[in-house]
Specification:
The complex is a heterodimer of chains A (174) and B (557). With 174 residues, chain A is mainly alpha-helical. Helices cover 79% and strands 0% of the residues of chain A. The longest helix of chain A has 32 residues. Chain A is elongated, with a radius of gyration of 18 Å. With 557 residues, chain B is mainly α. In chain B, helix 4 runs antiparallel to helix 5. Chain B is globular, with a radius of gyration of 24 Å. The relative contact order of chain B is 0.10. Classes of the chains: A mainly alpha (174), B mainly alpha (557). The interface between A and B is medium-sized, with 27 and 32 residues.
Chain lengths: 174, 557
């Protein structure tokens, strides 16, 4: 998993470099200053989901499957809130502000960087949802705690990437 | 899996139908079978891409030749480069790695056998996707076309406006697909080598092949991913109307060059480090001496791994970077020659004073040493910015990198083929045919690539489909093309040897070379479970300890 995270970080690095390289290079509007708003609430949700998944894994290691299921479900809910608010933000940008991938360089780089991250969140959520279903059917046992821990590495990675994307897109780029 | 295979092993080979055996190969997760699949797949593409090279050389044999049209020439050039790098050399190296690493570290399989199978099939379908473009490259209308944008696919050649139809999309998707497979293999190599070593095999007692492939695994995951990212950007540009590489909307064509070469240069080392690994295993066995300077070899490899990520822009001196940028990349490029030079000294040190046996694998390794040295020297010449300004984009560059890839990598690959052929098939190859292959190939190689430097210095640009008479290039191009036929003849002898020896070769026994690493301790070909009992090692040469209990290695290490 660490190797995979290494490979994923390289992909994100390239997209972040492209984003930073193209800040302010758009030949037409709208610019980030015009349209972007800080997604504070969804960021808090995503970052706190790192804590909840950690608590879930700890619970499974202590063999309390019920507590694991609870925290695992909270993680799922928090991740879904993040994904929905990204979707709302995109809807707002596309229909109210007229910014699409092909509008200008900002649109191209913004949608691809945030979209790449959202894609990783989606993959993570699908896996979390699958594990939630397994928990509901009582298939998750304490001996699976190592797998849950390996998966939680991925989820922490997705969160760390969001910190970087947030800094680059919403703080530096705006 | 293993218990099932043992049961199957009791049924005689002929009792099972072809369909059953084929099904077994397609669904296999065994590292040995996947390794052989990789190798066969890559051999097929070696022949295909070789034919493409010969087509180009026939076109260039005389000025104003009309053997193929300019469009076809561009396609052949693109397909030759892309195929050789991504679907010949990489799969073949992964194949040898997949086959040998578990055997050498005393494991029964890779860490993730199913991921291993997934990686192979991703690579395989990537190759099919690339070649499907010959049929489907134009989309629905008319005959297909192959990609014609060069293997580096510089923007804006790849933009929608300049590359109609779907040929470039096939190129992008093929590399994206095989890239996913490569990253899987990289992850698998690292996990296997770090977690699956047999008892007693500390990192310092690992065979060099395992060490070098560990470094390759690390480089694969950090250098293939940028290519994947760049391909995603290209797809966004082509299909969603993005502007990453669209200069009219403020995008940058130079950014593609940076992204491509930050993949492209470590890629060269991904290809050459496994070649180093083969030489580091073969040279000691045929010099009857342990490798000279084992820790330094490991350190030099790791140094190459790190430095290779900081040299990419030496492909871009003529683009016009700042003088500081140029100086930095000249410095790193010259610096990476130091660990590479250390390796050459170590191989020479291994041979020095040894009882050298000139068998075919050793012949190829000696060819490798000589040619890789020259390739490194022209590399330093080209890595110096002022010299590069004069010769960049000329046939001198083509000669240089073919010297690396053919003279270095392919020679050591042939050495590896002959060295491990008895292990993989259980039969010896034919020594006479092997020597014929070596001499034909080395004569052809030097005819082609030694003389290719000269038209480069005389100013012949690369990538051209024909040229004017009277510039002094004719005789050199004629010699180069003649050399290509010698090489083709050598490859033909090689293929004949492989096929003939498979049926008629002498039985090899477990250890035909009196070698020292663990793969030679099992039968040839190895059983499904590799080792009946997990081996325990105490030194870098476990089989030496076994054969010489009175004077084992572990007393001195």
């Amino acid at each position: 998993m660490f190797s995979l995270i290494g490979a994923e970080s390289a992909i994100f690095t390239i997209f972040v470099v492209a984003y930073i390289f193209y800040i302010g290079k758009s030949v037409a509007g709208p610019t980030p200053q015009d349209v972007l708003e800080l997604p504070i609430f969804s960021t808090i949700c995503l970052l706190s989901s790192s804590l909840t998944i950690h608590l879930a894994v700890r619970a499974l290691q202590r063999a309390s499957v019920g507590v694991f299921g609870l925290w695992w479900f909270v993680t799922l809910a928090l991740g879904t809130i993040f994904l929905v608010s990204t979707g709302r933000e995109w809807h707002h940008l596309i229909y109210d502000k007229g910014l699409t991938v092909s509008t200008n360089l900002f649109g191209t780089t913004y949608y691809s960087l945030v979209g790449l991250h959202a894609f990783h969140v989606t993959v993570g959520l699908l896996l979390i949802a699958l594990a939630t279903i397994f928990t509901l059917f009582g298939k998750v046992k304490p001996e699976h705690s190592e797998r849950a821990e390996v998966f939680s590495l991925y989820w922490h990675f997705v969160d760390v990437v969001w910190v970087i994307v947030f800094t680059v897109v919403y703080l530096i780029g705006r | 899996m293993s218990s099932e295979s043992i049961v199957l092993g009791t049924v005689s080979e002929s009792a099972r139908s072809i369909g059953e055996r084929l099904h077994e190969w397609v669904t296999t997760v065994d590292h040995k079978r996947l390794g052989i699949l990789y190798i066969l797949y890559a051999l097929f593409f070696l022949v295909v891409a070789g034919i493409e090279a010969v087509i180009m050389r026939i076109q260039l044999i005389v000025p104003h030749n009309h053997f193929v049209s300019p469009q076809v020439f561009n396609r052949m050039m693109t397909m030759h480069g892309t195929t050789m790098i991504f679907f010949m050399v990489m799969p073949i190296l992964f194949g040898f790695g997949t086959y040998l690493i578990p055997l050498m570290i005393g494991a029964r399989d890779m860490a993730f056998p199913r991921l291993n199978a997934f990686s192979f099939w991703m690579t395989a379908f990537g190759g099919l996707l690339l070649y499907f473009s010959f049929i489907g490259g134009n989309g629905l209308y008319g005959a297909g076309t192959a990609p014609d944008v060069g293997w580096w696919a510089y923007a804006p050649l790849t933009a929608r406006a300049f590359s109609l139809g779907h040929s470039t999309d096939f190129w992008t998707l093929a590399l994206l697909t095989s890239g996913v497979g490569s990253v899987g293999t990289g992850v698998n190599f690292i996990a296997t080598i770090l977690c699956m070593r047999c008892p007693g095999m500390t990192l310092g007692k690992m065979p060099l092949l395992a060490w070098l492939n560990l470094v390759v695994g690390g480089m694969v995951i950090f250098c293939i991913s940028p290519l994947t990212a760049a391909q995603i950007m290209l797809l966004i540009d082509r299909y969603l109307g993005g502007h990453f590489f669209d200069t009219q909307a403020g995008g940058s064509a130079v950014l593609w060059m940076h992204f491509f070469w930050i993949f492209g240069h470590p890629e060269v080392y991904i290809l050459v480090v496994p070649a180093f690994a083969f030489v580091s295993e073969i040279v000691p066995v045929f010099s009857r001496k342990p490798i000279f300077g084992y820790p330094i070899m490991v350190a030099a490899t790791i140094a190459i791994g790190f430095i290779s990520f900081s040299v990419w822009a030496h492909h871009m001196f003529t683009v016009g970077m700042s003088s500081y940028g140029n100086s930095f990349f000249v410095f790193t490029t010259v610096a990476i020659a130091v660990p590479t030079g250390i390796k050459i000294f170590n191989w020479l040190g291994t041979m020095w004073g040894g009882k050298i046996q000139l068998r075919v694998p050793m012949l190829f390794c000696i060819g490798f040493l000589f040619q890789f040295l020259i390739a490194g020297l022209t590399g330093i010449m080209l890595g110096t910015a002022p010299f590069n300004w004069q010769l960049s984009g000329s046939y001198f560059v083509v000669a240089h990198f073919h010297y690396v890839i053919v003279g270095g990598i392919v020679f050591s690959l042939f050495g590896a083929f002959y060295y491990w052929y008895p292990k993989m098939t259980g039969r010896m190859y034919n020594e006479t045919l092997g020597k014929w292959h070596f001499w034909l190939f080395i004569i052809g190689f030097h005819l082609t690539f030694d003389f290719m430097h000269i038209p480069g210095i005389l100013g012949m640009p690369r990538r051209i489909y024909t040229y004017e008479p009277g510039r002094g290039w004719e005789i050199w191009n004629l010699i180069v093309t003649i050399g290509a036929f010698f090489q083709a003849a050598g490859i033909l002898v090689f293929v004949v040897n492989l096929l003939w020896s498979l049926r008629k070769g002498e039985p090899a026994g477990n250890d035909p070379w009196d070698a020292w690493t663990l793969e030679w301790s099992t039968s040839s070909p190895p059983p499904d479970y590799d080792f009946a009992t997990t081996p325990v090692v105490r030194s870098r040469r476990p089989l030496w300890d076994l054969k010489h209990p009175e004077d084992p290695d572990w007393k001195y290490e």
